[in-house]
Amino acid sequence: MAAEGESGVAQPPSPRERYRAQVCDEIKDRAWGQIATAGASALSLNAIAKQMGLSGPALYRYFGSRDELITEMIRDAYRGLADAFHASAEAAGGADAAALAHVLRRWALADPQRYLLIYGTPVPGYRAPDEITAIAAEIMDVLLDACAVLPWNADAPAAAFDAHLADHRDWARGHRAGAPVLHRALVFWTRLHGVLSLEVAGHFAGMGFDPELLFAAELDDLLAG
């Protein structure tokens, strides 16, 4: 990130800052390679240092621990999806559930390891800091906005889960949506991730059907309420 000078104008990064950014990017690229081969739980900074021809202590000047590196990678992943959701909502003049679903699928398939890092099996012993959960909450905020404008039957009897959500809505981070909208957003999110997770992990391979059509059918069912 460029620093600001005394005039308030952003200054270009120094050669030292550019070099540091390049090394950090290479470390993350090699970390993604490790994750693709053996999973996030096997991530090793010492192995990355060896691949790069660095000593362990030299690499730790860039990332102080394995968890710090994982946090940076998770931040990049969530930030990318949040930005894609915001861009979709801006382009459509408001959050649109169908458009967001397709954004999610394209984003997941473009980089399956990135998707699995944040929506796959949790990394043992890792706990995300608040800054990460805040970015994840941005994504859910856009989805809640989209679900709030979907048509629904106001005369339908309230589900038991709606009553539960009325008192268990901390995850919505103060969003104004009522319990029925929270319920619909959670169903929307979990069902689409169910299909996507199986597709990304390769569990549909050899079954002979088109996963994109399954995803579209699930989306149509969700939009129909």
Describe what is shown at a glance.
InterPro entries: Homeodomain-like_sf, HTH-type_TetR-like_transc_reg, HTH_TetR, MT1864/Rv1816-like_C, Tet_transcr_reg_TetR-rel_C_sf. By secondary structure, the protein is mainly alpha-helical. The protein has helices at residues 15-38, 45-52, 56-59, 66-92, 97-110, 112-119, 130-148, 160-166, 179-200, 211-223; strands spanning 3-4, 10-11.
Account of the 3D structure:
The protein is mainly α and about 220 residues long. The chain has 2 domains: about 55 residues; about 150 residues, Orthogonal Bundle (Tetracycline Repressor, domain 2), CATH 1.10.357.10. The chain is about 65% helix and about 0% strand. The chain is built from 10 helices and 2 strands. It has a two-stranded antiparallel ribbon. The longest helix has 27 residues. The protein is globular, with a radius of gyration of 21 Å. The termini are far apart.
How are the SSEs placed, and which strands pair?
Elements lengths: L2 E2 L5 E2 L3 H24 L6 H8 L3 H4 L6 H27 L4 H14 L1 H8 L10 H19 L11 H7 L12 H22 L10 H13 L2
Antiparallel strand pairs: 1-2
Helix pairs in contact: 1-2, 4-5, 4-6, 4-7, 5-6, 7-9, 8-9, 9-10
Specify the structural class.
Answer: mainly alpha
Order of helices and strands: EEHHHHHHHHHH
The residue-averaged pLDDT reads 90
Count the helices. How many? 10
Counting structural domains, the number is: 2
Number of strands: 2
Main sheet specs? 2 strands, antiparallel
CATH superfamily of the largest domain: Tetracycline Repressor, domain 2
CA radius of gyration is 21 Å
Q: What percent of residues are in strands?
A: under 5%
